[in-house]
Amino acid sequence: RKEVEQDPGPFNVPEGATVAFNCTYSNSASQSFFWYRQDCRKEPKLLMSVYSSGNEDGRFTAQLNRASQYISLLIRDSKLSDSATYLCGAGSYQLTFGKGTKLSVIP
Amino acid sequence: NAGVTQTPKFRVLKTGQSMTLLCAQDMNHEYMYWYRQDPGMGLRLIHYSVGEGTTAKGEVPDGYNVSRLKKQNFLLGLESAAPSQTSVYFCASSLSGGVSTDTQYFGPGTRLTVL
Q1: What is the mean pLDDT of chain B?
Q2: Of B14, B21, B42, B25, which Cα lies nearest the Cα of B110?
Q3: Residue A2 banded pLDDT, cuts 50, 70, 90
């Protein structure tokens, strides 16, 4: 079983929709959690760090549930430019990444 | 700041050839990492370094060697390339690591094909 698992996707949503991604991690000692965005044939770029209390950045909200060992990403009012693959990372000392979830926002 | 840069961007090798991928960062980061990304497999850690002169194995280290002679550079070597090493290779760096690993910043990647 992979240490970090994500919804496989793809998610095809209309502009303006709200979409949520979940990511589960198996290493209970994990201390660091991140969401990265990766555009086609590009490098992953940090979208958000995920804090225990949850955090928000504009249309993006990240949550951490340590008891159930998952992190989530909520995107509100989806834009065409949000189309990308979203990777979650979790770990302690090293990060393990999920395989990514592809999001396509449709006009 | 250029951030994290990788050389070369593309490379085609024949089975058995060797090559070195260069990663450079200008952010004075202590930690550096090499990942490979394959379709359906996600990012997998090959080797990493916690500081100048140190290296350690990651999840998939076989067939690769690394060196960190200077803080800003992290080299990934393939001594005898195999078709299974066809992949996109990403280098990353972070200011610090440890239990609470810091944000990792990625380079643009090297697309390697082994024939």
Answers
A1: 95
A2: B21
A3: low
Question: Of B43, B97, B109, which has the smallest distance from its Cβ to A93's Cβ?
Answer: B97
Q: Name the residue facing A93 among B59, B101, B104 (closest C-beta).
A: B101
Beta carbons of A92 and B100 less than 8 Å apart: yes
Distances from the Cα of B30 to the Cα of A10, A96, B27, B33, B73, angstroms: 36, 19, 9, 10, 11
Q: In this structure, are residues A35 and A86 in contact, taking their beta carbons and an 8 Å threshold?
A: yes
Shortest Cα distance, chain A CAs vs residue B72, angstroms: 19
Distance from C-alpha of A22 to C-alpha of A74, rounded to nearest angstrom: 9
How close B89 gets to chain A, by Cα (Å)? 10
